[in-house]
Amino acid sequence: MSTLMICPDDNPENIETIKGHQAIVDCLAKQGVQFEYWLTHKQLSHDAGQAEVMAAYQSSIDELNNKYDFNSVDVVSLQADHPDKVALRQKFFAEHTHDDFEVRFFVDGCGLFYLRLDNKVYMLLCEKGNLISVPANTPHWFDMGENPFFKCVRFFTTPNGWEGNFTDSDIVTRFPSFDDVVAEKI
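^ that's the sequence the OP posted. Answer follows.
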């Protein structure tokens, strides 16, 4: 189940936890963040690549494309045996912004989005079926853990796809990692 944890950006020990889909939707909507649950009824192979994922969810992809006129759509998929998992984790686990809004649909697995808004950090555990849209220029980072497993369809309004503007902040070092959050939930 998705979980939202909120704390002051200068006090990561003072965490408020919100559970329940509608409560999370309502809380994030106040911050301009869209959060939805989509059905993931398509059976994908464990090692499904971009073509298989795109074909399985083409109607949903087309629906979003028609609504927002995206210029680029791709699939990012990482598993524990990926040879570049450490480098990719470091890339996304650094606070950054995007000039356009960021949309991710989790078709499998999970990851933790951190959003810094109004002097607070919103830590959102996204799981299979979750769609998140982060507003443009929102400082955020993403952690997939030391042994990642997720597949996401990514939507971009820019033709170049993922382009991060790194803030060079060390804020990520003060907050629990994906692995810490998952261990706490279990």
